[in-house]
Amino acid sequence: MTALLSLERVSKRFRGLVAVDNVSFDVPEGSLFAVIGPNGAGKTTLFNMIAGAMSPDAGTIVFAGTPINGLTPDAACRRGIARTFQLVRPFAALSVEDNVMVGALLRHHDVGTARERAQALLRDLDLYDKRHQLASTLTLPDRKRLEVARALATEPKLLLLDEVMAGLRPTETDRMVATLRALNRDSGLTILLIEHVMRAVMALALRVLVLDHGTMIATGTPQEVVHDPAVVQSYLGAEVV
Amino acid sequence: MPLDVYLNVAVGGILTGLVYGLMALGLSVIFGVVRVVNFAHGEMMSIAMYLAVVLFSGLHLDPLIMLAPIAAVLFVFGYALQAGLINPFITRPEHSQFLLLVALAIIIVNTLLIVFGPDARTVQTSYAYDSFQLGTLIVDATKLYAGGAAILFAALLFGFFRFTLIGKAIRACADNHIGALVVGLNVRHLYALTFALGAACVGAAGTMMTLIIDVTPMVGPTYTLLAFVIVVTGGLGSMPGALIGGVLIGFTEALAGLLFTPSAKSMFAFAILVLVLLFRPQGILGKRVI
Amino acid sequence: MAAMIARLAEGVSPRAAVLLAALLAALLLAPFIVNDYLLTVLIIILYFAYTGQAWNIMMGFGGQLSLGHAIYVGLGAYIAAFLFTRYGIGPWLGLLAAIPVAAACGAVIGFLAFRFSVAGVYFAILTIAFAEFARIGFDHLDFVNASSGLFLPVAQYAHNDLWRLRGNPAMFYYVILAATALALILCRMLLHSRIGYFWLAIREDEQAARAAGIDTFRYKMYAVMISAAATSFAGVFYAFFYNNLFPETVFNIGRSIEIILGPVIGGIGTLFGPILGAFLLTGLAETLNSVLIAFGVDLPGAKQVFYGICLLFVVVALPEGVWPWLARRLGIAERSP
């Protein structure tokens, strides 16, 4: 499998603080890749650099063969990188359907076609019945699924999920895991996720990267990482089976 | 033109600029603490100006003497306005706030128009045409007094914020709204007090301005815009910035009026505004709020 | 074409359609029913409805508060008037010249604002600065007579010349009515199109919109430029209706504020808000005026105080505007697209 996304010695600092320090890794196409680590480890900063919200101070980020350092967020999305936010940001005053349509309109200029695409996605993500509701009236798990739907509507090659399981109950987490797994399996979508919920990481990920204070302290399969002493000490506290 | 003329005009501009600075100081204080963009600032000043005019023509009371009382009246007006009308708007979207004050501005200007008519009113004090001579420098007495009073008033205000307990409380509110609430400060009262202080500044500045310019209802909007130019240039939320901005604008305006046509002088102010908004939106001394 | 009309009608409830048709019928018949004075009032109402609708594109759709919209009116007015008085070029051709100039002016303001992150209140102040610039600038432009004013040859009342916009009030009335109707249709089309969705998204959450692939700079520019171009027609109309132009009045900040009153009171971002706002405001103001005159009272500025009070009331009590409130009462609430 070729690497869809490749980071080479990427660093980012904010004034005195080094948020991301010399991080390199490859995300193979079609894989499910997780980034874990304690709070403040630099995970969201990493995401922001990939998604174009920030640009790296050093190193290169290569996506589908071309470097994307310094690309604007909207250009990154047009290239095929979609993202969700740690604190969900649906368009509150728009309906569920309209939220997803905004994403769909990126690739389908006709409003009618975009609406069909949006409705199909809503069906997949179990939000079809609520499509006329205002996004602000949804529960948190629904809003998370809405953000995923909107991101998917832009027909990305790479989906960045920032703590999409946060705040979800175990049953809801399982449901989201199943949805994501199905997406990955059926359409070959490459998914890169930041997660704290180990239950989801163990169930989903093919490969895991562990960040602490901006540096990579471990990388490998979930099983390998979870038994790594450095990871246990800095993050997990105890071995997670 | 001989250097003397430039110098005299420049000094006159600086002195006028101090009064502008005091006016803008009010706006800066209000924005810096209450975070309200007072689009009715110049209009509030015009209320003070008309008060001064009426007191002078009716009771022959010199504006310099009326400084404190008129400032006090504006103080009360400002307090009532903030506590009564503006307070709920602090949490509303920005343009909502702005439009509220636009509405107030419209009401004030046109009420003044109805009451006083469009003709210009002036205050001709006994020393209106006096001047002082320092070597080759000739300074208008009115401008000197006005400028001096402006510095005094500004100093009092600085002192208040620096050294009094209430002043510190207000600065605390500005720094951290929630924190101030948690600590038990009566934020609503403090905000109203701040607005009142800003209004008092404008009241004092307006009283001084009657010595320098003619008073018409249209003075309001003109000086609102000028206040914004000054505050944006000097730095929104920065008190020294407002004064420096005022002096800068007063100075440029005076010289521009001399070098080009008088009516073009506001074009310079606007050109400066645009440049500042583009290249240094925090102004000369401001903190980056945007 | 049929598909486009069908799409326009989509989502409009039968009740709304009937009310709209009734309103249109009443407006079409008005010149035959009302007297000259009322006709002039209606022209002014429709003028503000049109201009407010054009402004609404920048604010309600694009999310940018412009308090200097008089600049586009002024540019349209002066360009068309200049071409007519100097070269005899008719207003419709003049409009063709005015539109690109106004759009370019909007583009400059938009570019400066968006590239340099001048937003919100600062954007409003920027627009005021530009309008003032234009006012002072035109005051010194000798080839349009500077502050002395530019005058068009007075129209002959009896003879209607649509091409040169010379004629009696009824002709002007139908022109501005047609323009307002077209503006309404244009706004509806825009709102329900791809660009309308993107505008909504940008207004809701610009960062999230960018993450969804929207080039927010480009779409904000579109809003600004379309709004500016549309407003320039109002200027052309103004010049040919009033036949005199002074920089002091045309570019005045008071004009800019008048433009925003209708949409703010009616409802920013709604389709019908600017129109309702114009009717309410001007209608009530003229009534007030008539009452005052009937009592022999002449108060210059009374009308503006009234406008200020209306604005105050709406901002405090009905922040969404009168139209959403009224529409709910009538059972024809606008669905956001």
3D structure, described in words:
- The complex is a heterotrimer of chains A (241), B (290) and C (337).
- Chain A has helices at 43-51, 73-79, 96-104, 111-124, 140-153, 170-187, 198-204, 222-227, 229-236, and strands at 3-14, 17-28, 32-36, 58-63, 66-67, 81-83, 158-162, 190-194, 207-212, 215-220.
- By secondary structure, chain A is an alpha/beta fold.
- In chain A, helix 6 links the parallel strand 7 and strand 8 (190-194).
- In chain A, 47% of the residues are buried.
- By secondary structure, chain B is mainly alpha-helical.
- A two-stranded antiparallel sheet of chain B has the order 1-2.
- With 337 residues, chain C is mostly helical.
- Chain C contains 15 helices and 2 strands.
- The two termini of chain C are 21 Å apart.
- The chains are: A alpha/beta (241), B mainly alpha (290), C mainly alpha (337).
- Chain B binds chain C through residues 37, 85, 92, 94-96, 98-100, 102-107, 109-111, 113-114, 118, 217, 221, 225, 228-229, 232, 261, 263-264, 266-267, 270-271, 273-274, 277-279, 281, 290, and chain C through 65, 67, 112, 116-122, 124-126, 128-130, 132-133, 136-137, 139-140, 253-254, 257, 264, 299-302, 304-305, 307-309, 311-312, 315-316, 319.
Biggest beta sheet attributes of chain A: 6 strands, mixed
- Rg of chain B, nearest Å: 19 Å
**Percentage of residues in DSSP E strands of chain A:** 25-35%
Residue-averaged pLDDT of chain A: 90
Question: Quick one: how many beta strands of chain B?
Answer: 2
Shape descriptor of chain B: globular
Q: What's the CATH architecture name of chain B?
A: Orthogonal Bundle
* Global morphology of chain A: globular
CATH class of the largest domain in chain A: Alpha Beta
The SSE string of chain A, one letter per element, is: EEEHEEHEHHHEHEHEEHH
